[in-house]
Design goal:
six-stranded antiparallel beta sheet, about 220 residues, binds fe (ii) ion, globular
Length: about 220
Amino acid sequence: MMKVINVENEKIKSILSQIERYYLSDNVSKLVDDWEMKRLEDSLITSYHPCSDKYLFEAHKLDVLQFCHPRAVLGISIKDMAYFNLRELVMIETKLLSLGKIISSTKNSLSIIYPENGYIGWHHNGNAPGYNALFTYSVDGSGNFKYWDRETKSITTIQDNPGWNIKVGYFPSIEDENKLFWHAAETKSKRISIAYILDNEEAWKKATDRILSKE
Ligand SMILES: [Fe+2]
């Protein structure tokens, strides 16, 4: 389950725009282009693009434990990249921490930047069930987030808008395989994704309210 909301909170907007500015700087863009370790290839399903319908249908035939994490990624952790420059690393970690604090999250579970044509393959995070908030930046709206809708038995695509896109949701546990929330994301142009875990439903509702309120 994933719900799209608008960010109204001025503090959050300010942090997001600082992260965006860092990501779009010439220095970082060049690092992303040159980074050799940005591709993780799946050794299990090799014939299809990791975000394609066919890949998902193949994955559904295999052991769900293999897909707790994405098996194929074209992207780089923001922290890994900033590691080259200690000042930048501290700056980015501070921003991610402040953003987490505003929404009272204890864990930043993902901070990834995708190069052009970047992606994160189909997976379900069923090993780390819980409530979450996902902040995604797209340069031009060419990216998307896809999930398997169990009700309609079809893939639903949530297209990015240019700029920041916020989603809040819940990832069910692997204990009930039928309820797993399979998802993937891909983009033609640059994209950032930052995810936070919320401890419980109440914390998640508070975080959602915080994002939606001016203060
Ligand atoms: Fe995920």
